[in-house]
């Protein structure tokens, strides 16, 4: 493990999703401890996308932004909101020059699949329909997210392809949760890794799926056909249960003719980029912004 990251492990709370409501408070406290980003060059606005129910979003608009990304927070499908994601959405907007539309999707277990996906897709559709008002080129809209949010972004791309929905320019998938089956080597063996481990992943999928069968829109790794999807950037952490399913998904995208950039970050663990003092974390965050900037360039 990267020694700068390893020093912080004793400060991390024990990974547990037995009581999602209690864990939301712990997650919010962790997010509040993250140093605030510089937002001087960003126009930030809270909006509710109409629907039943409406979906809260927070729009981060840099100066002269043209492209946009629908950004979906992590939190195991059960934690996180617009406020916990604020430090990361703002940094992504600043680093990429793109308008970041952070989505406050409904959380499980109160709202199991497909609630979160429906919210993400509603925001994608609304953004495409209101692109000009947002100052966004409708041909330069990406989807992305971290962890559970990365899985939701991949599912949104699948659904948009299948339903001939709004065109998606790019997928920015950071340590995404893609496969409920947990059959890969990393899912079977990473039982005591920091922040995210096998048991926590199992609980996350149980809360998210509820009584519903796992379909490709819930777990994108189950999709039989990945052709025709947008180009993707996939980032993995070496000591993360999701690592192998993410690498396999990237390989399957490549084999389906989809351009992919895959970066496996050595010495890192799931979510460790939140430790901003570590040099590897700074590189991870910078790369997300630069990758999106390049993907949405005219």
Explain the overall architecture:
The protein has 298 residues and is of the alpha/beta class. It has a single domain, classed as Alpha/Beta hydrolase fold, catalytic domain (Rossmann fold), CATH 3.40.50.1820. The chain is 38% helix and 18% strand. It is built from ten helices and eight strands. Strands 1-2-4-3-5-6-7-8 form an eight-stranded mixed sheet, with helices on both faces. Helix 3 packs across helix 10. The longest helix has 17 residues. The termini are far apart. The mean pLDDT is 96. This is Alpha/beta hydrolase. GO terms for molecular function: hydrolase activity. Pfam families: Abhydrolase_3. Keywords: Hydrolase.
Instruction: Count the E strands.
Output: 8
Class inferred from helices and paired strands: alpha/beta
Q: Considering the protein shown, what is the CATH homologous superfamily?
A: Alpha/Beta hydrolase fold, catalytic domain
Order of strands across the widest beta sheet? 1-2-4-3-5-6-7-8
CATH class: Alpha Beta
What CATH architecture do you see?
3-Layer(aba) Sandwich
H/E element string?
A: HHEEEHEHHEHEHHEHEH
Binned strand content: 15-25%
Please state the average pLDDT score.
96
At the third CATH level, what is the topology name?
Rossmann fold
GO molecular function, one term: hydrolase activity
Keywords: Hydrolase
Domain Alpha/beta hydrolase fold-3: 69-272
Organism: Nonomuraea spiralis
């Amino acid at each position: 493990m990267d020694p700068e990251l390893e020093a912080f492990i004793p400060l991390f709370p024990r990974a547990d999703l037995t009581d999602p409501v209690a864990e939301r408070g712990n997650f919010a406290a962790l997010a509040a401890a993250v140093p605030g980003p510089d937002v001087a060059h960003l126009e930030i606005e809270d909006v509710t996308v109409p629907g039943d129910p409406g979906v809260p979003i927070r729009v981060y608009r840099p100066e002269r932004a043209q492209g946009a990304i629908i950004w979906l927070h992590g939190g195991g499908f059960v934690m996180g909101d617009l406020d916990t994601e604020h430090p990361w959405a703002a940094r992504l907007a600043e680093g990429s020059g793109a308008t970041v539309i952070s989505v406050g999707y409904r959380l499980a277990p109160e709202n199991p699949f497909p609630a979160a996906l429906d919210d993400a897709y509603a925001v994608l559709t609304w953004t495409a329909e209101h692109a000009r008002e947002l100052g966004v080129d409708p041909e330069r809209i990406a989807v992305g997210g971290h962890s559970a949010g990365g899985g939701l972004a991949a599912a949104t791309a699948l659904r948009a392809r299948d339903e001939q929905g709004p065109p998606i320019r790019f997928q920015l998938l950071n340590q995404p949760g893609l496969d409920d089956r947990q059959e890969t080597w990393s899912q079977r063996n990473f039982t005591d890794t920091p922040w995210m481990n096998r048991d926590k992943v199992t609980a996350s999928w149980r809360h998210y799926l509820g009584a519903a069968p796992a379909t490709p829109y819930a777990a994108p790794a189950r999709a039989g056909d990945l052709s025709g999807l947008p180009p993707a950037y996939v980032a993995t952490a070496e000591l993360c249960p999701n690592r192998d399913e993410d690498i396999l998904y990237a390989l399957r995208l490549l084999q389906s003719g989809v351009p992919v950039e895959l970066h496996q970050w050595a010495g890192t663990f799931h979510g460790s980029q939140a430790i901003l003092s570590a040099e590897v974390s700074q590189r991870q965050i910078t790369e997300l912004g630069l990758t999106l900037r390049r993907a949405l360039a005219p």
